[in-house]
TrEMBL record, chain A:
<keyword id="KW-0961">Cell wall biogenesis/degradation</keyword>
<keyword id="KW-0436">Ligase</keyword>
<comment type="similarity">
    <text>Belongs to the DltC family.</text>
</comment>
<dbReference type="GO" id="GO:0016874">
    <property type="term" value="F:ligase activity"/>
</dbReference>
<dbReference type="GO" id="GO:0071555">
    <property type="term" value="P:cell wall organization"/>
</dbReference>
<dbReference type="GO" id="GO:0005737">
    <property type="term" value="C:cytoplasm"/>
</dbReference>
<comment type="function">
    <text>Carrier protein involved in the D-alanylation of lipoteichoic acid (LTA). The loading of thioester-linked D-alanine onto DltC is catalyzed by D-alanine--D-alanyl carrier protein ligase DltA. The DltC-carried D-alanyl group is further transferred to cell membrane phosphatidylglycerol (PG) by forming an ester bond, probably catalyzed by DltD. D-alanylation of LTA plays an important role in modulating the properties of the cell wall in Gram-positive bacteria, influencing the net charge of the cell wall.</text>
</comment>
<comment type="pathway">
    <text>Cell wall biogenesis; lipoteichoic acid biosynthesis.</text>
</comment>
<dbReference type="InterPro" id="IPR009081">
    <property type="entry name" value="PP-bd_ACP"/>
</dbReference>
UniProtKB/TrEMBL annotation, chain B:
<comment type="pathway">
    <text>Cell wall biogenesis; lipoteichoic acid biosynthesis.</text>
</comment>
<dbReference type="GO" id="GO:0016746">
    <property type="term" value="F:acyltransferase activity"/>
</dbReference>
<keyword id="KW-0012">Acyltransferase</keyword>
<dbReference type="InterPro" id="IPR024194">
    <property type="entry name" value="Ac/AlaTfrase_AlgI/DltB"/>
</dbReference>
<feature type="transmembrane region" description="Helical">
    <location>
        <begin position="303"/>
        <end position="321"/>
    </location>
</feature>
<feature type="transmembrane region" description="Helical">
    <location>
        <begin position="327"/>
        <end position="347"/>
    </location>
</feature>
<dbReference type="Pfam" id="PF03062">
    <property type="entry name" value="MBOAT"/>
</dbReference>
<keyword id="KW-0808">Transferase</keyword>
<dbReference type="GO" id="GO:0005886">
    <property type="term" value="C:plasma membrane"/>
</dbReference>
Length: 78, 385
């Protein structure tokens, strides 16, 4: 599994919806798939499953809003 | 002089900002002249005597020492204890200002805007801890951010890194004209909200409620709804001034309101009402609390973690407004509403009993509106008099 697939898998698990694997430009906050509680879950999973530490204050909803954007940001932090 | 309270303030501000507007439309940097405007306006605001000028100065120096000290410390070490200690010291003046009135001594710690300034300072310490602020910050950068006069008295609460981007940006003439247009537009909308609608609700309706209402129940019901509307128009009007003036100075301060009275549920409401405050609590209290619980695996139950997070957030928010019964009850009420909604949302996810569709959206909005208004009724303090 390449990096992007792994990221999408984590997002899908946390959102409890596989739509994020199909629609990579879907705004997950506007779609109501992620709230602040699930966001924290996502950050914990990134750390546990991918070994990437994303500080809560780094996670800005304007720039971490779609599966594509999240993958890009994680690539920067890798 | 309280900011935005009189037309004199606006007239002086308009004259002071005229050179900013000319510089901006010519594409020149605004920051140097803006420093001059800031000093004059701050002097105007704090020279009245009742606003706590000396406390403000001591507060600012304390925060500067804490922030600069912590950034240097964080460049080499990262102990949790030091972080919590620094955060505590940073909010200590705010705690003092809330407690001192109860000790029947002079409230020397307080000054206009202390609640809002504290949040701006603590936020820098938290982002330093998270490794997002690595370079030492200059005194100019810090003072300019913390004492940014358009938002000094009641927010909105900006974020340092966002503020800094705008502050360093050199707007092109076209970009600045757009900002100026939006800024002036906001200020005039603010006049409509605060000085016309808000003023009218208060002086023609709320002040005359004794004659309008026919009985205790109708009095309190009418008070509840009219106060809620008054609170919105008054505060949203103030915010429009603060954001509008920020825009003219080239800073896009965040918004505070996004049509709060069409919220579909209480969670939605807190994404629309006093947003810069609720997002501050969300990012720096709720999410950090949940993260800590999950990482340390102290509490496994998801519902329990999120509910405890909400209770912590809203009780803190209540106390932050002031150590008075109405604010504590207001916080507890919203904590209760959020946890109740949390249970409902979770239940509905499984059973899907709440129908969707336009009609039910309207029903949800109406229910939320009444729930929210009751919250403002508590907030007003009227039921406790």
């Amino acid at each position: 599994m390449d990096f992007k697939e792994k990221v999408l898998q984590v997002i899908a698990e946390v959102c409890e919806d596989d739509v994020v694997k199909e629609e990579h430009d879907l705004d997950i906050f506007e779609a109501g798939l992620l709230d602040s509680f699930a966001t924290v879950e996502l950050l914990v999973q990134f750390e546990e499953q991918l070994g990437i530490n994303v500080p809560i204050t780094e996670f800005d909803r304007d720039t971490w809003n779609t599966p594509n954007a999240i993958t890009d940001r994680l690539n920067e932090l890798k | 002089m309280t900011p935005y309270s009189s037309f004199l303030f606006f007239i002086i501000l308009g004259i002071l900002l005229l050179p900013t507007m000319i510089l901006g439309t010519m594409g020149k940097p605004l920051r140097y002249y803006n420093v001059f405007v800031s000093i004059v306006v701050l002097a105007m605001i704090f020279s009245g005597g009742g606003e706590g000028f000396y406390s403000l100065v001591i507060f600012t120096i304390l925060q500067l020492v804490l922030i600069k000290g912590y950034i240097s410390y964080r460049q080499t070490k990262n102990s949790s204890l030091v972080f919590y200690l620094m955060s505590l010291l940073s909010i200590l003046p705010l705690i003092l200002s809330k407690i001192l009135p109860f000790l029947a001594v002079d409230n020397w710690a307080s000054f206009l805007g202390i609640s809002y300034l504290t949040f701006r300072a603590v936020q820098i310490i938290i982002e330093t801890r998270d490794g997002l602020i690595k370079q030492q910050l200059s005194i100019y950068q810090l003072v300019n951010f913390m004492l940014f006069y358009p938002t000094i008295s009641s927010g909105p609460i900006d974020r340092f890194r966002r503020f800094q981007k705008d502050e360093e940006k050199r707007w092109t003439p076209d970009e600045y004209k757009e900002l100026l247009y939006k800024g002036i537009n906001k200020i005039f909308l603010g006049f409509l909200y605060k000085f016309i609608i808000g003023y009218a609700i208060n002086s023609y309706f709320i002040m005359n409620l004794d004659y309008i209402a026919d009985g205790r129940v109708s009095y309190h019901l009418l008070y509840m709804y009219s106060y809620s509307l008054y609170l919105f128009f008054d505060f949203a009007g103030y915010t429009l001034f603060a954001v509008g003036v920020s825009y003219i100075m080239g800073i896009r301060s965040p918004e505070n309101f996004n049509k709060p009275f069409i919220s579909r549920n209480i969670k939605d409401f807190w994404n629309r009402w006093h947003m810069s405050l609720s997002f501050w609590f969300r990012d720096y209290v709720f999410m950090r609390f949940v993260f800590l619980m999950k990482k340390k695996k102290w509490i496994q139950n998801k519902m329990l973690v999120s509910n405890l997070g909400y209770i912590l957030l809203f009780l803190l928010m209540g106390v932050w407004h002031g150590l008075a019964i109405q604010y504590i009850v207001y916080g507890a009420y919203h904590a209760l509403m959020m946890t109740a909604f949390n249970f409902f949302e979770n239940w509905n996810k499984k059973h899907k009993r709440w129908p969707t569709g336009k009609f039910m959206t309207v029903v949800s909005i109406v229910i939320t509106f009444h729930v929210v208004c009751f919250g403002f009724y508590l907030f007003s303090g009227r039921p406790f008099q």
